[in-house]
Specification:
About 10% of the residues lie in helices and about 35% in strands. It has about 400 residues and is mainly β. A 7-stranded mixed β-sheet has the order 1-2-7-3-6-5-4, sandwiched between helices. A 6-stranded antiparallel β-sheet has the order 11-25-24-8-9-27, with no helix packed on it. Strands 12, 13, 14, 18 and 19 form a 5-stranded antiparallel β-sheet that branches. The longest helix has 11 residues. The radius of gyration is 21 Å and the shape is globular. One of its GO terms (biological process) is fungal-type cell wall organization. This is Peptidase A1 domain-containing protein.
Length: about 400
């Protein structure tokens, strides 16, 4: 989770990397007031402001806020996500993972949103400009960072981390490069021509070993799906969800359209520790492929408000209504490392390196295509992930 100040004077937020959002998103203060939830701001990653607990971004308290207007959010609306936001420009800061420095970027596009569908704020990693239906089309956050000389290129590397492992491994986000210590041998995939689905891969197969029903092929069909870390779950064809339901003893909750894990099955699954394998390719069949392996612990999640009234054990897959809703969410990126080079129009996907002891951080610069890379003015990547915890 990234962190940084926003506005003048600065208001602090913890935010999630969002691979398909172009700008900075933070919950607006009025949304928490409407929800009437205890510790709402704190639970949404909002830091104290003016020596008091803050419910969200207080637009009127920022002297550098330049308002564009109020618009529908639009992000992932095809999944049923709704809400409005106050869009504008403001000063945005990013704190390096080791807290050694804060990088500040002025006149950055910000969405102060009102929607519990997007519980935590986001740092947008997409490079497409924003389209608000006006002549003004704000540039992406990455573009602004490069233009200001804060990163060398329009690129990033990211993995969501593995808090379920014994050492509680944090996520890793590098802007303008990637962490070679986290990546392994990767699959290179061209960027999709659809600007709204650039990180699209082919899911050629999904299998599980040691499930409640033994070793099972969960998918008998190939399909295309974009990777989007702003979404937690995997949105899959119903037939594949049905196979998951049988293999893991899941119960479908009609009210929330999510899968619940009953306590008796949860205990069995934790004891048996199933292993899931995703075969990822550049094409629906054949071509170059890689396999990303996830332990059952990566799917052993709990959720409360705003998804459930009470905290419940749930399994993070969703039924897609049609192919337009197929999506690979952040759960997958707990065990996969993603690096994207927008300038050369490809991305790499690999198994995240979680060998013990954990490998040292090794930040590699992705050079720009429009500048002599030997120039001393070329900036270094921004390594935003916190240092890894010590290995016992």
């Amino acid at each position: 989770m990234g962190r940084g100040p926003l506005g003048s004077p600065p208001q602090g937020f913890f935010v999630l990397p969002a691979t398909n959002a172009p700008n900075i998103w933070v919950p607006i203060a009025d949304d928490c007031k409407a929800l009437n939830v205890t510790d709402c701001g704190t639970r949404r990653g909002v830091r104290p402001f003016n020596n008091a607990i803050s419910p969200g971004f207080q637009v009127n308290s920022s002297s550098s806020w330049d308002d564009i207007g109020t618009f529908e959010l639009g992000q992932n609306d095809f999944l049923g996500f709704t809400g409005n936001g106050d869009f504008g420009y403001d000063t945005v800061g990013l704190i390096r993972g080791d807290s050694s420095e804060t990088i500040t970027n002025n006149d950055t596009a910000v969405t102060a949103y009102a929607s519990p569908e997007f519980w935590l704020g986001e740092i947008g990693l997409s490079n497409r400009p924003m389209d608000l239906g006006q002549d003004d089309k704000p540039a992406s956050f990455l573009s602004n960072l490069k233009k200001a000389g804060n990163i060398p290129s329009l690129s990033f590397g990211y993995t969501a981390g593995a808090p379920y492992r014994s050492t509680k491994i944090p996520g890793s986000l590098t802007l303008g490069g990637y962490d070679a210590g986290r990546a392994t041998e990767s699959l290179q995939v061209p960027l999709n021509g659809d600007a709204d689905r650039p990180l699209t891969v082919a899911i050629q197969g999904i299998s599980v070993s040691n499930a409640l029903t033994g070793d099972v092929d969960l998918s008998t069909q190939s399909f295309l799906a974009p990777i989007d870390s702003s979404v937690t779950d995997l949105w899959l064809p119903k037939s594949i969800c049905d196979a998951f339901e049988s293999a893991f003893g899941l119960q479908y909750n009609e009210q929330t359209n999510r899968y619940i894990i009953q306590s008796k099955n949860l205990t069995k699954l934790q004891q048996q520790d199933p292993i899931l394998n995703f075969t990822i390719g550049t094409e629906l069949s054949g071509g170059n492929i890689t396999t990303i392996t996830l332990p059952y612990d990566a799917f052993d999640l709990q959720a409360g408000f705003p998804i459930f009234a009470d905290t419940l054990d749930y399994f993070p897959i969703r039924r897609a209504a049609d192919s337009s809703q197929y999506m690979i969410g952040r759960v997958f990126l707990q065990e996969a490392y993603l690096s994207v080079d927008y300038e050369r129009r490809y991305f790499n996907l690999s198994q995240t390196n979680y060998t013990q002891p954990l490998p040292a951080t090794k930040i590699i610069t992705i050079p720009p295509t429009d500048l002599n890379t030997t120039s001393p003015s070329t900036p270094h990547p921004l390594n935003l992930n916190p240092p890894s915890p010590p290995v016992p």
